[in-house]
Amino acid sequence: MTARNRTLFSNKLILIAGCTATLMSAACSPTIAQRGNMLENYQLAEVKPGESGRSDVLRALGSPTTQSTFDKGVWYYIGQETEKRGILDPKVTKERIFQVAFSEDGILESIQEIDRDRINVPYVRTKTPTHGNETTIMQQFLGNLGKFNPQTEK
């Protein structure tokens, strides 16, 4: 191998190593996902308790994520931002939950942010055993003998 060929070969190796390192670092960049209705402070400033009605709240904040089960005058706005890196489970990076309460007349009574401590529930990634008949291939084959009746002509 001549000196020129060695130089070309080493340049190609450096180029390939650089491209590989760039692609590998890009593959590890986080994927950010936003779910629900993440309310911002400027949106909350548009509605005033005691003055705004349901339609004003809908116009300023959008549709609620959910309504209270027992009191239709309470709406919840839930927004969450998660970050996922590679094959790891997503982590919650930002979360806001607001409770919006209305009077029976449909006038906004209060808006309050709910702070909830998140509980990490560990995932168990094993298979759940199922109980029942564990049959072999031969038992399955012999079990089907005689179950199929030939059609009789009438």
Features:
154 residues, alpha+beta, 5-stranded antiparallel β-sheet, 4 helices, flat
Describe this structure in words.
The protein is 29% helix and 25% strand. With 154 residues, the chain is of the alpha+beta class. The protein has a domain at 27-118. The longest helix has 25 residues, at 3-27. The mean pLDDT is 82.
State the shape. flat
Number of strands: 5
Describe the sheet with the most strands: 5 strands, antiparallel
Give the termini distance in whole angstroms.
89 Å
Estimated helix fraction: 25-40%
Number of helices: 4
User: What is the helix/strand order?
Assistant: HEHHEEEEH
Give me the secondary-structure category: alpha+beta
Kindly estimate the percentage of residues that lie in beta strands according to DSSP.
15-25%
Low-confidence stretches: none
Estimated radius of gyration: 31 Å
Mean pLDDT: 82
What are the SSEs and their pairings?
Layout: H1 3-27, E1 31-36, H2 41-45, H3 54-61, E2 66-67, E3 74-84, E4 91-102, E5 108-114, H4 137-143
Antiparallel strand pairs: 1-3, 2-3, 3-4, 4-5
Offer a quick outline of the entry.
By secondary structure, the protein is of the alpha+beta class. It has a domain at 27-118. Strand 2 (66-67) and strand 3 (74-84) form a beta hairpin.
